[in-house]
């Protein structure tokens, strides 16, 4: 069953209601909740926030993780809540459309019921509706990771997304994966194509430490001054190849952030200070505890659900707005002289079946896809399993990818990066070339083969684990644990670096840390230097075509140590032997 | 307005005013036993040659433990983008008057082959004890700074861990 907008209308007996977007016209179709997109007027400034669309112009399936472990003070706190813990925290009834949007429970069944999420034409309809209801009071802020994640964004080097942003009317924008097109391309698109302000208070020239981009912009709305300060992903040259941005240095720079906040408040007399951030949720929380004077942090990067209630650290409100166009966040602010008097917050899942596509954006999306249509639609294989990537440890899509790398490269083990983008496929669906690209579309896609000793493999895994599970957020890069093929291990997220992994096996055989035996390992996405090699999408597609039908019977998850029992970031503890 | 930001001006001011930088050895760039450094009269060779943090501290500031002070501000990335050039900024919040000023600032990396990386000397005319430099770090380690006032008072920064790690795998 797939409830379309028309089904909803028919169920409510108001089929063909032309004024779907008119206030209140359809309230009854939504049941007791009313039309979730109908919002009563409040305040004098509206902020709309979307982030990490990963270039998904069309609606996609997007499943929330079943594992997103929080440690130390982050344990059992947003966003480290999964499954029922997420729903309990926010008081959302099971199996409802919000439950489907915010948790992984019953994913496939509810996906059939509630449909795909996001899509730029659908987002555009919502944005237009809100702008029309709040003329001259609305800002649209894009938190970055917008230019990467799809075949067409890669093939147009980000330009298809710049066109979509311009049409959508994005006001301000920050970056992360954008930088992987290289510093010249980024500057070219920003200077010559992009209409939005590209902001970064934490990107400096490596020679003189000068700001490369505008750090902030002051918007005047309803007679009030709204400062928006940009924060790029602080670890871009570490998580992604440094050679792509050789002249720029990043990092968090909380001291400089404080300086920017003070400058906005004191020099420019800003009445409200908003940070558009690509730090990731945990880094945002720590930054808010150190920097005084930020009213709201609109966060991205970690793709977290942090609604429907916003989180507070001191006087700062913090949100994170999911990914792949799944959620549009809205703040209605009552901004007074020098301060925010009050706010209302809406965390709105974008259910594409329930929103009419904006015809202009739909036509634009169609136009950028047309030249590539045949290639995109090429059928590669059929999946019998739900395929997803997002999770702290192996997702099913990455399991297939690791299996493909081992088979195709004749290796006994494989690594795959713990990216958090990459949408889902439902059981029974055909995987097209577009879907293969949806898991792999990066500018450094080469497949590599290396020979490592067991100690070297463990060392790599320990270092990556510390980038995710270090208790100090300033040492976290975001992303998830690296995906493994044919490597079994016991894992204690709460230990220190070099002590998290124990009992490591490869192919079921114990790995000795002192043995000189080398293992032939496949991987992809090398970050140190440009290398020659086959593109991962070709390797993956070749393997999938060969299989014709795929399913994931065995997901290679580590066994977690007992201290992870009852961690609210684990929805299905049994899968980890807990 | 943003095309002419402060840092370069700060840097130029710090280097031009009153001969702030007297002795500085970038670890791995200027080896203390090289002819370049070793032949300079007054070069404090011994602490730069020490192989452990405690001996380098003892030979430079005369103590192996100095209490941290909020006046000593050390800014460095939490994770190095390039272990070969880790940007470090040091700023001592201390009035530089004729009778009391910051005389010297020492920068250490705990497990560097030679833990004393740099020594900067200042005069009241320096205006402020402030510098930026790039240092080389082979592995994850702690950076620490010790400032010495002209009256001999020692103040340390909170040690700052800089992680040198493999990359990849970001969200």
Q: How would you sum up this structure, described in words?
A:
By secondary structure, chain A is α/β, with parallel strands linked by helices. Chain A is built from 17 helices and 25 strands. Chain A has a 6-stranded mixed sheet with strand order 4-3-2-1-13-14, with helices on one face. Chain A has a 6-stranded mixed sheet with strand order 6-7-9-10-12-11. In chain A, strand 11 and strand 12 (316-320) form a beta hairpin. Chain A is globular. Residues 1-29 of chain A have low confidence and may be disordered. Chain B is α+β, with helices and mostly antiparallel strands. Chain B has one domain: Immunoglobulin-like. Chain B has 4 helices and 8 strands. Chain B has helices at 6-16, 35-38, 45-49, 53-61, and strands at residues 72-75, 86-92, 102-109, 116-121, 129-135, 141-149, 154-156, 160-162. In chain B, strands 3, 4, 6, 7 and 8 form a 5-stranded antiparallel sheet that branches. A 3-stranded antiparallel sheet of chain B has the order 1-2-5. In chain B, strand 3 and strand 4 (116-121) form a beta hairpin. The radius of gyration of chain B is 16 Å and the shape is globular. The termini of chain B are far apart. Residues 1-35 of chain B have low confidence and may be disordered. Chains A and B meet through helix 9 and helix 16 of A and helix 1 of B. Chain B: InterPro entries: Desulfoferrodoxin_Fe-bd_dom_sf (IPR036073), SoxY (IPR032711), SoxY_sf (IPR038162), Sulphur_oxidation_SoxY (IPR016568), TAT_signal (IPR006311).
């Amino acid at each position: 069953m797939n409830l379309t907008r028309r089904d909803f209308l028919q169920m409510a007996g108001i089929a063909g209601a032309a004024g779907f977007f008119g206030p209140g016209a359809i309230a009854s179709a939504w049941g007791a909740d009313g039309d979730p997109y109908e919002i009563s007027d409040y305040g004098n400034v509206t902020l709309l926030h979307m982030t990490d669309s990963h270039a998904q112009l069309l609606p996609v399936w997007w499943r929330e993780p079943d594992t997103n472990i929080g440690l130390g003070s982050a344990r059992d706190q947003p966003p480290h809540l999964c499954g029922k813990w997420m729903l309990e925290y926010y008081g959302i009834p099971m199996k409802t459309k919000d439950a489907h949007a915010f948790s992984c429970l019953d994913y496939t069944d509810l996906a059939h019921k509630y449909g795909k999420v996001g899509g730029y034409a659908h987002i555009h309809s919502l944005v237009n509706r809100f702008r029309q209801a709040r003329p001259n009071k609305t800002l649209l802020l894009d938190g970055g990771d917008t230019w990467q994640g799809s075949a067409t964004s890669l093939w147009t080097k980000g330009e298809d997304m710049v066109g979509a942003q311009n049409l959508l009317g994005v006001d301000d924008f920050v970056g992360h994966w954008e930088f992987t097109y290289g510093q010249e391309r980024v500057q070219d698109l920003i200077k010559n194509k992009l209409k939005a302000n590209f902001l970064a208070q934490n990107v400096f020239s490596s020679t003189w430490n000068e700001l490369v981009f505008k750090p902030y912009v002051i918007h005047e709305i309803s007679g009030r001054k709204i400062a928006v300060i940009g924060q790029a992903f602080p670890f871009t040259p570490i998580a992604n190849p440094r050679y792509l941005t050789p002249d720029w240095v990043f990092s968090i720079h909380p001291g400089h952030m404080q300086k920017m906040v003070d400058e906005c408040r004191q020099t420019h007399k800003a009445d409200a200070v908003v940070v558009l951030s690509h730090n990731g949720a945990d880094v945002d929380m720590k930054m808010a505890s150190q920097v005084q004077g930020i009213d709201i942090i609109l966060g991205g990067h970690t793709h977290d659900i942090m609604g429907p209630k916003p989180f507070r650290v001191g006087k700062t409100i913090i949100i994170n707005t999911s990914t792949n166009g799944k959620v549009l966040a809205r703040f209605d602010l009552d901004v007074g002289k020098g301060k925010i008097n009050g706010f209302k917050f809406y965390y709105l899942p974008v259910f594409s079946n329930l929103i009419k596509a904006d015809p202009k954006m739909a036509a634009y999306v169609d136009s950028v896809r047309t030249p590539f249509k045949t290639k995109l639609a090429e059928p590669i294989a059929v999946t019998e399993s739900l395929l997803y990537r997002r999770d702290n440890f192996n997702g099913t899509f990455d399991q297939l990818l690791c299996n493909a790398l081992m088979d195709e490269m004749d290796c006994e083990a494989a690594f795959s990066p713990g990216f958090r983008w990459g949408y889902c496929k439902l059981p029974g669906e055909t995987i097209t070339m577009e879907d293969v690209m949806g898991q792999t579309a990066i500018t450094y896609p080469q497949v590599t083969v290396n020979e490592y000793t067991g100690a070297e493999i463990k060392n790599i895994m320990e270092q990556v684990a510390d980038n995710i599970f270090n208790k100090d957020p300033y040492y976290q890069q975001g992303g998830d644990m690296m995906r493994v093929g044919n490597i079994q291990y016991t894992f204690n997220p709460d230990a220190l670096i070099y002590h998290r992994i124990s009992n490591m096996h490869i192919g079921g055989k114990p790995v000795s840390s002192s043995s000189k035996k080398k293992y032939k390992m496949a991987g992809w996405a090398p970050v140190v230097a440009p290398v020659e090699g086959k593109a991962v999408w070709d390797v993956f597609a070749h393997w999938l075509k060969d299989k014709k039908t795929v399913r994931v019977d065995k997901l290679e998850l580590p066994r977690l140590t007992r201290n992870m029992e009852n961690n609210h970031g684990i929805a299905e503890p049994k899968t980890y032997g807990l | 307005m943003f095309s002419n930001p402060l840092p370069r001006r700060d840097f130029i001011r710090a280097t031009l005013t009153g001969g702030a930088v007297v002795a500085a050895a970038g670890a791995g760039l200027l080896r203390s036993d090289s002819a370049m450094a070793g032949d300079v009269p007054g070069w404090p060779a011994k602490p730069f040659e020490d192989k452990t943090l405690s001996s380098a501290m003892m030979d430079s500031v005369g103590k192996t433990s100095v209490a941290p002070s909020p006046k000593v501000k050390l800014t460095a990335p939490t994770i190095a983008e390039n272990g070969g050039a880790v940007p470090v900024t040091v700023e001592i919040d201390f009035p530089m008057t004729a009778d009391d000023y910051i005389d010297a600032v020492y920068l250490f990396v705990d497990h560097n082959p030679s833990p004393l990386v740099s020594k900067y000397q200042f005069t009241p005319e320096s205006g402020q004890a402030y510098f930026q430099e790039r240092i080389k770090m082979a592995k994850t380690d702690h950076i620490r700074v010790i400032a010495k006032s002209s009256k001999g008072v020692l103040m340390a920064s909170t040690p700052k861990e800089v992680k040198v790690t493999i990359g990849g795998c970001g969200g």
